[in-house]
Amino acid sequence: MSQVYRPSEDAPLVRLMVLETDEPHPHTKSERGSFGEILHSHFARAGAEHHPPLAVETNQVFVVSEQGGRIPDTREFDAYDGLLITGSTFDAHGDNPWILHLLSLLRDLWLTRPKLKFTGVCFGHQLLARLLGGSVAPAASGDWELGHSRIDINATGQRLFRTRSDHIFLHQMHQDQVTQPPTPHSAGELLLPPRGGQTEAAEVVCCWGSSSHTAVQGLYMANRLFTTQAHLAFDEDMVRRQIQMRVDSGGIEDLEHADRAAETAHLEHDGLEVAKAIMRLFMFDDDGAGFEREED
Question: CB burial class (10 A; 0-12, 13-18, 19+) of residue 291?
Answer without folding.
Answer: middle
